[in-house]
Amino acid sequence: MSTSRTDAAVRARRHATQEMLQRLQTALAAMARDHTPVTVAAVARTARVSRTFLYQNQQARALIEQATRTSRPQPGISNSRSRTQPAWRERALNAEEALTQTQREILTQRTRIAELLGKIRDLEHDLPEGSLQRIVTENTSLKQQVRQLAQDNQHLQERLVSARQNNRFLDKRVADLESQLAPYLTTPPPPP
């Protein structure tokens, strides 16, 4: 059963790859006809494929390399009009794509904002009268408690640091006193 699924997935992947290669060939032919410079970004946009596909698929790379070789201007032939037109066209396509993407992003953000505002309104309608003021008051008191607890925590941290420093000082003092008493403990007292 899993083998048939795998085979179907492989066939679907191959079919999708062939469709992308066909779109790539069509795009390259159109670019050659319009004397558009062959760049990976332009080809990906025109053929509606990802740049990753163009870099990873060997057939796609070969098609782009072949188109790049044939689209190079011949030495000694001046064709300044065909060079400026594709640059202008490329900029226009980039601007169109950026505009389309920006419009999609704005629409997505507006939809999200509308959903969130709707949720806020729903929550406000579910509250009985006067409860909003009670919630605001409780929120304010909770914030004050949090500030107070944070201050108490800071004070206790400072006291802990001080206690540790005092402990280290006292340990050092005890060690000094023990070192001063050590000679008296090892030698016997003088006879009377």
UniProtKB/TrEMBL annotation:
Q: Does the keyword Coiled coil apply?
A: yes
User: Which residues does the annotated region (Disordered) include?
Assistant: 66-87
> InterPro entries, per this entry?
TnpC-like
The UniProt keyword set, sorted, is: Coiled coil
Keyword Metal-binding (UniProt): no
Q: Which domain of life is it from?
A: Bacteria
Q: Which residues form a coiled coil?
A: 132-180
- Signal peptide range: none
Task: Give start-end positions of Polar residues composition bias.
Answer: 67-85
What protein am I looking at?
Transposase
Q: Which organism is it from?
A: Streptomyces ferrugineus
